[in-house]
């Protein structure tokens, strides 16, 4: 028996309360945090534990959810992936991904994205995935291009971090483009 949520390197799984420590540690890498969203003041261990517990107890939504990216062997949290901006009428959704700095460049993000897209396209009947990547995040821009995403546009100067304004590059992939590459 094979799980649709397990690849060669990673497994996507629900958050467990004990994951708090790994995610709190990822926040220590300020440049990576800025590349993914925005830098915030440090979080306490108590709040990190509470947030992980709340996430673990959140009721399941089949289309809008957050999953932990964990190593296949060892089940160690290395990041998270989530869906958002789900539009069931038009069959589109967006996703976000973050991998902790110590786990960069190991193939975890690309495998997690492919697993997520396979589920959303073939099990939930969506027809298009979208992702926004800040222009300063060269690694993520290269990843999305390598995976076959098409650059569809750019929101100019919409992100502020580290004293500068940056663009957001908008990427999209249709089910046909995914199937051609990954089916």
Automatic annotation (TrEMBL):
Superkingdom assignment: Bacteria
Keyword vocabulary terms for this entry: Acyltransferase, Transferase
Domain N-acetyltransferase: 10-176
Pfam families from the UniProt entry: Acetyltransf_3
Molecular function GO terms recorded: acyltransferase activity
Annotated EC: 2.3.-.-
Regions annotated as coiled coil: none
SUPFAM superfamilies: Acyl-CoA N-acyltransferases (Nat)
Keyword match Acyltransferase: yes
Protein name according to UniProt: GNAT family N-acetyltransferase
Protein species of origin: Nonomuraea purpurea
